[in-house]
Design goal:
Helix content is 47%, strand content 13%. The protein is built from 14 helices and 10 strands. α9 links the parallel β6 and β7. α9 crosses α10 and α10 runs parallel beside α11. Pathway: Carbohydrate degradation; glycolysis; D-glyceraldehyde 3-phosphate and glycerone phosphate from D-glucose: step 4/4. GO terms for molecular function: fructose-bisphosphate aldolase activity. Its EC number is 4.1.2.13. It catalyses: beta-D-fructose 1,6-bisphosphate = D-glyceraldehyde 3-phosphate + dihydroxyacetone phosphate.
Length: 395
């Protein structure tokens, strides 16, 4: 009797065109979820070639993508006003360093303003970089805003006009892009909401970047802020990376044409228990193995407020650790390449050459660390052992 009633119910549903069309639509959509196309072969080859060129062994990335507000704070420390010309003069110092810089620096991340600036003799910065075989890239996120109804967490904005901006930057000569999403560790954070938001935003950015011919550098930045230990930092990093790569897959991002810029797995800045470089290396590589596909050609670590020497030593330990590492592991440093440069330059033209030497020395040290060949104290720079940490750091 019960089976008879069920059969009548099914016949009623199937005879009703509204229900039939709904079920048909669901079936079609379920079938369509696995349908997608790869980028055309020519674009795949271009993206893959650029990504691999950026992470060629022994070289890394110089991050010079501070916002006008961010570099303004640095200019203030050397007694200079935050003007377009002073920002230009500092970046000129970096880009006109001796050609030997390109032996360890493969690429530079720029801020929008810098793409259009020129040196004193009228040479566009983009041209200066290309002459040195340094690949220019561009920061495309528009900084963070509060994530509504979260516990002091943030989301990164800038997706609305991203395709148009990427197309413009590609025409100007940029070959890759970068987008940062910071993640805070606290008693109740990161929240599921923040992790999901980070993953979806980074995946959408990466997809748009590739559609315009730019290699996306994906930067989920688990911050140093906090008193968490290395175990908590590792677990959070693993969860974030898993979510990010699931989202990248869902958005059909071509992984061979991407790079990852993550944090190293370290204890929080206020944690009383400090870890050795070897322990940091094991935790970092373990987290990466659990979340980053081998298809990704390279991983370029951010320094996250570590001192210059600390960032170099930890990178060296990561490359020396006896573990499976299917990607090139290198650096994408801002503060950890430039702290000594700022200290020596001090805003004075007479110090430019000396400041450039500091940059070259630190780049060489990190080039060796990217090969696992750096010896502690092998390079001495003016601010090498000074912490670059600042709470809620704004780029």
């Amino acid at each position: 009797m019960q089976r008879t009633r069920q059969n009548k119910t099914f016949r009623t549903i199937w005879s009703n065109s509204k229900y039939f069309n709904l079920l048909k639509s669901i079936a079609v959509n379920l079938k369509m979820t696995t349908y997608f196309s790869y980028p055309d072969t020519k674009l795949q080859e271009e993206l893959k070639k650029t990504a691999e060129a950026i992470v060629v062994p022994g070289k890394g990335i110089l991050a010079v993508d501070e916002s006008n507000e961010g570099i303004g704070k640095l200019l203030a420390t050397v007694g200079l006003e935050n003007t377009e010309n002073n920002r230009r003069k500092y970046r000129q110092l970096l880009f006109t360093a001796h050609d030997v810089l390109s032996e360890n620096i493969s690429a530079v991340i720029l801020f929008d303003e810098t793409v259009y600036q020129k040196s004193d003799d009228g040479t566009p910065f983009m041209e200066l970089l290309k002459k040195r075989n340094i690949i220019p890239g561009i920061k495309v996120d528009k900084d963070v805003v509060p994530l509504y109804l979260s516990e002091d967490e943030v989301t990164t904005q800038g997706l609305d006009d991203l395709a148009q901006r990427c197309a413009t930057y590609k025409k100007q000569g940029c070959r890759f892009a970068k987008w940062r999403c910071p993640i805070k560790i606290g008693e109740h954070t990161p929240s599921v909401q923040a992790i999901h938001d980070t993953a979806q935003v980074l995946a959408r950015y990466a997809s748009i970047s590739q559609s315009q011919g730019l290699v996306p550098i994906v930067e989920p930045d688990v911050l140093l802020d906090g008193n968490h230990d290395i175990v908590r930092a590792q677990k959070v990093t693993e969860v974030v990376l898993a979510a990010v790569y699931k989202a990248l897959n869902d958005h059909h991002v071509f992984l061979e044409g991407t790079l990852l810029k993550p944090n190293m797995v370290t204890p929080g800045q206020a944690c009383p228990n400090r870890n050795t470089p070897e322990e940091i290396a094991v935790a970092t590589v373990t987290a990466l193995l659990r979340g980053v596909p081998a298809a990704v050609p390279g991983i370029a670590f951010l320094s996250g407020g570590q001192s210059e020497e600390e960032a170099t030593i930890n990178l060296n330990a990561i490359n020396k650790v006896q573990m499976k590492k299917p990607w090139t592991l290198t650096f994408s440093y801002g503060r950890a390449l430039q702290a000594s440069v700022w200290k020596i330059w001090a805003g004075k033209d007479v110090n430019v050459k000396k400041a450039q030497v500091e940059l070259i020395k630190r780049a060489e040290a990190n080039g060796l660390a990217a090969l696992g060949k750096y010896e502690k104290g092998g390079v001495t720079t003016a601010g090498g052992n000074e912490s670059n940490y600042s709470k809620n750091h704004k780029y």
